[in-house]
Amino acid sequence: MAFLKWCFNWLYKSVWAGESRSAIAGCPSIKNFVASNLPKSWLRCFKSALLTAICFCFLAMPPALASLNDDRFDGNIYALYGGNGSLVPPKVNLEKALKREDKAALLVFYLDDSSDCKQYATVVSQLQAYYGRAADFIPINVDAIPVKTTYEPSEPGYYYQNVVPQTVLIDQSGKVAFNGKGQVPFEEVDDAFREVYDLLPRSQSLELKRKPINELNTELVTDS
């Protein structure tokens, strides 16, 4: 609203009143031209019509917002498309997570301007809902990975394989238990978590089904 107000104010001063510095020297403003050529009774109508036309032009402009299916930047994808702004920034970094012998670590390599990462954000959010207390979730923006020839196992670049999204599950002993490239299904990562924590396999536990929340997100619920 503040931006539109500024635009209206600028257009009024520059186009209607002729106060803009960029106005061509010697050219009368629209206000002066109309005032000298139209009856006063028509002046108010002309001004209202001009402002209405300006409003219509702004409303008719197509939105420049990014969406789920394009590769434009629109902000934190986990807050916008995963419904979970707590994932970024992560609570711990990889180096600290590897020192926790009681927790696994899930690395998710992503870009905020990738449609695949936007669509995958809801899967990461669902995984955190089930395993967020048992494991450290560490989303890694690949643009923030320093360019080096070699990396240590305590550095995210050690596991990154030049694709987004990429999901890497590291178990409590520091070994890679799962390495998925692209939009891997929730079930594949869930199976890896079950194996790491020695949980019942999917066939022996309650079946989870996807329930849509809105046009972007779904949640997993039991069939009850």
User: What general outline do the C-alpha atoms trace?
Assistant: elongated
Q: Walk across the major sheet and give the strand order.
A: 2-1-3-4
Fraction in helix: 25-40%
Main beta sheet strand tally, sense and closure: 4 strands, mixed
Low-confidence stretches: 20-25
Q: Care to describe what's here?
A:
- The structure is a single chain.
- With 224 residues, the protein is an alpha+beta fold.
- Helix content is 36%, strand content 16%.
- The protein has seven helices and six strands, in the order H-H-H-H-H-E-H-E-E-E-H-E-E.
- It has helices spanning 2-16, 30-37, 40-60, 77-80, 94-98, 115-131, 186-196, and strands spanning 104-110, 135-141, 166-170, 176-181, 208-212, 218-222.
- The strands form two sheets. It has a four-stranded mixed sheet with strand order 2-1-3-4. Strands 5-6 form a two-stranded antiparallel sheet.
- Helix 6 (115-131) runs parallel beside helix 7 (186-196).
- The chain is elongated and about 85 Å long.
- 21% of the residues are buried.
- Residues 20-25 have low confidence and may be disordered.
In short:
With 224 residues, the protein is an alpha+beta fold.
Write the layout of secondary structure elements.
Blueprint: H1 2-16, H2 30-37, H3 40-60, H4 77-80, H5 94-98, E1 104-110, H6 115-131, E2 135-141, E3 166-170, E4 176-181, H7 186-196, E5 208-212, E6 218-222
Parallel strand pairs: 1-2
Antiparallel strand pairs: 1-3, 3-4, 5-6
